[in-house]
Amino acid sequence: MSDEFLLQPLALHRIPQPGDLPLAGGPPRYSAGEGLLRQGKSQEPLRETRLLSDLPFGADGLLKTLTRPRADFAGLATSQPRVMGIINVTPDSFSDGGDRFDSGRAIEQGLAMVAAGACLVDVGGESTRPGAEAVSLAEELHRTIPVVQALADQGVRVSIDTRHAAVMAAAAAAGAAVINDITALTGDPDSLRVAVETGLPVVLMHMQGTPQTMQRNPRYSDVSLEVRDYLADRLARCQEAGIPLDRLAVDPGIGFGKSLAHNLELIDRLGLLHGLGCPLLLGASRKSFISRLAPAARPKDRLPGSLAAVLAGAARGVQFFRVHDVAETVQALQVWQAMDSGGQAC
Ligand code: 9MG
Fold first, then answer.
1. Residue 202 DSSP SS3
2. Three-state secondary structure call for residue 51
């Protein structure tokens, strides 16, 4: 394998400084980077931190990729952070009072999320929580498709959260605008073909293991590099199959086969993923790592920690945030944008 040079953008800030560059088109700017020179993926990379002006000759291509504005994703401009609302169409989220779910309430919640500022609503029918049992395909279709159809009919941009090709196809036919797959189109042998055929943009997420097993002692030798390599490989496979880069986004998969230390390192080093050249999506909302840092046993009590994770992601140039609490996240991002730009965003 030939040498490979990666760059972890550092010294992130909002107010322009001499020699800095916008990260993925901004708002954050970066003025230094940790260069990682790799002579094979199994070897420890050589690491060196430098100002951008001191980067070795040959880093220009990588700087261009890190810096250039991203294409719109699903018709949405990526120049400012945006919010995707979560709708889990499962009996525990939308009980009808028994052990079934109530799709009318899920549709109302989707509309309320859009009114609160979500640009996308992510509809899923299978819980992906650690240890969650899989549901049958028929049940997943029965839960999700009427909700996708009703929201899409009312002009909502819907993303379908599924790892099953049949659900992707049915959701696309019902008007879904994005496929969100926690298996990065590897969970079903037909997913890649169906994704190509639908022509929909796709969010490719990293996961180690499956939701049933993923939190049993996850291990990495270097989590941020391994997640980056996996996503780079999935992007390459998708492009080979016919999905252009401007229809792809990547997601490090917080909590999917990761320890607390892995999650924190991935959030801190999110900038590395901008070297892949497409928008980033971050999903940290109400996840259990928050309760390992501060007492918040019930997911509902994790809003402050979720907002902290969103702001950390925004400072690192993340374009999309998958969240339960849309209004609160939109407000936090609006205040962050105004304060961090020294009033220029107003
Ligand atoms: C379905 N789902 C649950 N958590 C997620 C996350 O962090 N990212 C994405 N893309 N999907 C998720």
1. strand
2. strand
Rounded to 5 degrees, φ, ψ at 181 are -120, 115
Neighbouring CB atoms inside 10 A of 47's CB total 11
**Whole-model pTM?**
0.95
64-109: per-residue pLDDT in tens? 999 999 999 999 999 999 999 999 998 877 666 666 678 899 999 9
Q: Whose CA is nearest to atom 8 of ligand 1?
A: 283
Which of 129, 322, 323 has most ligand 1 atoms within 8 Å of CB, for mutation?
A: 322
Spatial neighbors of 61 by CB under 8 A, at least 6 apart, are: none
- Give the separation between CA 52 and CA 104, rounded to whole angstroms: 53
Known catalytic residue at 287: yes
Which residues partner with 9 through β-bridges?
33
Q: For residue range 330-342, list pLDDT tens digits in order.
A: 999 999 999 876 6
User: 239 with 195: CB under 8 angstroms?
Assistant: no
d(CA 238, CA 248): 8
Q: Whose CA is nearest to atom 5 of ligand 1?
A: 283
Residue indicated by tokens 């001191």: 54
Q: Note the maximum CA span of the chain.
A: 65
Tokens of 87: 């709708």
DSSP category for residue 18: T
